[in-house]
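Sharing a chain and its predicted structure for anyone who wants a worked example. Both blocks are below, sequence first, tokens second.
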Amino acid sequence: MAEGGVMENMPVYENVDVNTKPFHIGAFRNLWLEVLKPEQYSFSQTEPAVQDVEFMEEMGVSPETLEEVKTICSTESLLSHPADEAPDPDVVPPDSKLATLKLRKKKQDYKKTLVRESIGRHDIYANEMEMLAVGRKTDNPRNSVPEGEIILSFNIVYPVLFERFKHVRAYQTLHVLGSQKLTDLRDAICCVSDLQVFGEFSNTPDMVPQFISKDLYKSAFFFFEGTFFNDMRFPECRDISKTTRDWAKNKDFPDFKMAKMEDTIFYDLRMKVGYPYLYCHQGDCEHVVILTDIRLAHRDDCLDATLYPLMTHKHRVVTRKCCVCHLYISRWITTNDALAPMDPCLFCDQCFKKLHYDDDGNKLVPLRCEHRGI
């Protein structure tokens, strides 16, 4: 491959510490596989004897030197407790000579001076989703992630209409395989707009439709590097990017390309790491999508391909409770409601029906209500 072609497919900074220049994901993977030996990205464990031989050959040392290094660098030399006693990780010996243990002792003594009655739930479970997937494997070899596969990490930001969430962490972090289609990422993105049930149901509260907005309005698109990737899997899908393309054409912008989301895999894309892209669904619900990392899969990753796209983070938000009982999550929102303490007002299922309907299901006062979805 020519030198210019190699550099074109290497992720180098366009804006320092912000984003890279665009590069081809499939070509970038091929460059890695050309440079690395198969055993360097293999998922299988190398036998210790083979590791010893490879180490001696690479470092040019004798077997005697290797054994001496093993003795000096052995973890047993780092023990700070008698060999016949079980270690207590919370207790650091006061006369320790290791610098790391001295720092740990100093930190423990400092923590004792702090008063903290409880730990936040978010702090406890911050890495829970990521740790559940580490090293997971499948019993079916056909569902295993192949060696040399690329894993891409995407941050999905809250919709732009959420003013309060514009400058906080990503709503979701998803890992996808390079061989997966864009529709796989699209289906894994969870948004409150997809979960709503549209309609006015004050006369028939027990007959709320079982479908949600995502089942009814299936059109969506990604915008990556000047190309609109539309979801056209279903007959009812429409090209909702046409409005934007027509506007851009009237404003003398360059023509944008079009492609189908279901016909494109991530290996086909040219993207920038750290650059904000667009995901649009439900007509006008827009999310910023950022590719934050791209790397080869290794043996400690989740190797079950059926679990990808893999969610490793989801921002925890406070749910809105019922305005009457303040106990259950609200499912109904009412307006022009004479019995409500505010307008609009949120109710759970039980409080909504007991307050607004008699035993025969007849509405007691005029109101307008909508179901908040699942």
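Comments welcome. The first helix runs from residue 3 to 8.
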